[in-house]
Amino acid sequence: MPCALLLFFLSLPVSAEPQALRLAVVEMTEPGFAATTVNPIRKALSSVFPSEDIVILRVNSATLESSVRELRPDFIISPAADFLRLVDAVGAHPIATRKTRWARDPHESTGAAVIALASRTDITTLKTLKGLKAAATLPTSLDGWLALRGEIEDAGMDSENFFSKLRFFGYGMPHVVEAVLSGAYDVGVVPVCTLERIEAKGLIEPGFLRVAALKEGAESLCRTSTRLYPDLIFAALPSADPETVRSATLALLGLGAGEYSWYPTSDFHAVRALEERLHIGPWAYLEEMTPSALWRRWRVWILGAAGLILLLLLSELRLRELVRRRTADLRAALAERDRLAASEENVRSRLSRLERMGAVSQLCAIVAHELKQPVGAVINYLAVARLKTGISAASPLPAPGTESQADPVLITAIDGADMQARRIARIVDRVRGYARAEKSRPVRLRINDVLRSALAGVKLSSSLPVETHLPARSPVILGDALEVELILHNLIKNAIEAVKDDPEGRVSVRISSTEQEVTVAVDDNGKPLSDEAFSRLSRVSASGKSDGLGLGLGIVRNLVEENGGRLELSRLPGRGLRAEVRFDLASDALPDENTDKKSFPEDPTS
Fold this sequence. Notes:
One of its GO terms (molecular function) is ATP binding. The protein is α/β, with parallel strands linked by helices. Among the domains are: 18-107 and 230-289, 3-Layer(aba) Sandwich (D-Maltodextrin-Binding Protein, domain 2), CATH 3.40.190.10; 110-228, Periplasmic binding protein-like II (D-Maltodextrin-Binding Protein, domain 2, 3-Layer(aba) Sandwich); 441-584, Heat Shock Protein 90 (2-Layer Sandwich). It has helices at 2-11, 33-48, 64-71, 80-90, 145-154, 172-181, 194-200, 242-253, 269-278, 291-389, 408-435, 447-459, 481-499, 531-537, 553-562, and strands at residues 19-26, 52-59, 75-78, 93-100, 112-117, 133-136, 165-168, 187-191, 209-212, 233-236, 260-263, 443-446, 466-469, 476-479, 507-513, 517-524, 566-571, 577-584. It starts with a helix and ends in a 22-residue tail after the last strand.
């Protein structure tokens, strides 16, 4: 029932409050600005947002950043220089720039024109303006005083002291024009095309005023005294919805051509360069300040900083004394720490040597034990050879000219002797290499062949049959042939030792593989192990058995890790133990790749 009520209330229509689209407009001194620019944009926005009120917000250039943060408009119309301030302050994004019909390029649409009476023939170039009286619109107008300042600075002159008198009237028409016409000021600084517009409207007689300090090569049909910059910018603020921005952009760019039209824009390099040249905007900090001005502006902070510095100095003196006392204690502690560290390093080094010596000792025991069987086999084979050939022990080969012919048994004996001799050489070489801490280069090994070689060695000392489960196609691993054989040999012999007194004892070896690894599992059904005995297995470093290899599981684990494998022990359900060795499958070996089978001889007695 509560869910039904909830769904009922959610389904009720909700009366939406009328939405408002907020358009901020920087106050301009341009005649007819509302009629030529603001009203057409407002009408275009109303056509694409018929359900929203278009609210016009008037903002002042002097307080632009704070006004935008407080009013949070969606869009703004502002001069290019003011727009760049918003880019730095709130992240405004340009949509379009206004282009007058007198301009050819929207990026070069506005600038300043210096007007003077046509009768003033002494006013021609920029240099001739120096020392005159000038009237201008606003000190922050990009299409007025700022543009002319840039030209003055580029000419290597000081714009701050260029004119003998400079007055800002706010409006170019009629105030600045009237000031020049009356003769009260020598020149006037007005936006580009102002003179052409008032002449076209018949407000003054053509030719009565002229533009001085003409700039050659400007992309404008009007006469200009400065380089040209982007005109007004229509920009989106971060608070605007992306879909709203998209629709507003289409509406703005679709406005018909008239006195002004709107074009996409993104080139503000000229404005940025002008700001940097005049040390305004982001580069205002570059403006030189005198000591007296700094004192008047920052005296409270300077006094506060001086007091803070004094406190820091007193604190520094106190800290120095504390540091001096603590340093002595620290030196003593560090000396003791170094002594203990040296002692610990010495003990660690000795322990490492002892462990290495223990490992070498155990490997030597393996070699001594394993050499008995191949040497005995060599002796037996040689004895058979001697019996068959009638050669005495002192002369193992037939004398020249004797009629002695080797039979198959003799050939087998000689082959067996050669095989065992080679095995002895490999074992001895590996032990010597291990004692010298040399690492053998891993080779590709067929794990089936390695296991068969290990089983051949096991058969020489044990008659217990070992069940084997091998895949039809042997997986290939990377490792040292002798070490991998010793690993499997030791694990199988340990399993046999666990069941040798049990008439029903059983040992099995299974090889399986996945796409990433090869697993060799050795299982036995020996007596159940207690938790303590099982945990002790991983800590055993040497075998206490009188026969066998004498390798502890700790060394087996080390050999496994040296060959990139992992050793895992687990108790089987009921009784018995499983030892699993996992090797990574050799990714660079083909499944049917040949390996050196001489490393894994078959059991000669089988």
